[in-house]
Amino acid sequence: MTDQAPIVRPLPDYAISPPPAVPSPAAMTTGAVPGGCVDCGQSAANPAAVASPAVAGGYVYAVGRLHARFPSLGAEREYAQLTGADPDAVVHTGQLKDALAVAEHRYLARQMCWVFSGPTADACAVVARDERDLDELIDTLVDDEQVVQALVGSPAGTLSPSPCLAAGLAVMWPDQLLSFSLDEFLDALPGPDEGKPPKGKDAEPWRQTARSLFDHLTRRSENRGLTDEHRAMNYMALRYPQVYHLIFNAQREGKALIGVEPRLAAGGDRRLVDVRFVLRHANTHVVERYFCRVDTTDVFPFLTNPLTLTYD
Known about the structure:
Blueprint lengths: L5 E3 L41 E2 L8 E10 L3 H11 L7 E2 H8 L5 H6 L1 E5 L4 E5 L4 H10 L6 E9 L2 E2 L10 E12 H7 L14 H16 L9 H12 L2 H11 L2 E11 L6 E10 L5 E9 L6 E9 L2
Parallel strand pairs: 6-9
Antiparallel strand pairs: 1-4, 2-8, 3-5, 3-7, 5-6, 7-9, 10-11, 11-12, 12-13
């Protein structure tokens, strides 16, 4: 099974390095190892409960990949005993998924650390509320590196102490988990011509443009889907085809995308994000800006203003 991507490697210790004293999305680009963690940071005030670290906006809307990690050497050895595997061998995602899916092994699935990772760093820990959530987490595990996953989640609140909480990650309940290949996404994406994808010589440029824009919105190094700005961008990448139409039609006219600028907007008791797309004509160098507004107040963001040419 050399073609499978490893999910867990045996390590001398299972510690996940904590974030810096003043964490920021840009700063937390390292600190995770393939294994789980054993030193659980417990609250001194209440050792029986651990509060999820605060997250701006409170929710997650992340694009990346779900991983299952052993919380301790003992859990890894238990897996080896259950499956008859070499305890020192690399455990692959497919092998782990097959083992955890067995009803008699569900107790081990409840012990696993479930972590959703963005393009360059872990985004959050994921906690199952019930058996249905646990089934979905197991089903979401995949080996295929071409598969893209998206997590929409809400804060898990106060939890019992767990080794999985030691990394200082936000802890989320999974409200929605999606898995798809980018080719599947492009096939389902409504095209710019009355909802139909371009044909002939424009067919491949359309797919290349859409693929590039999807990566541009979701794969920024600091994008873990936790801030309002990043949640808005990930929402647009997945749920707003018009932005793909804008960039493709602009390229037809000799314009290029030179920037995407998400900004918090005044919204009273609502959390709003204006996302600006900056275009420049290759010959005239004239710059155009389009913006749309996304409401990120609730667990599921939604569009409040469609793409509009702006002059500010």
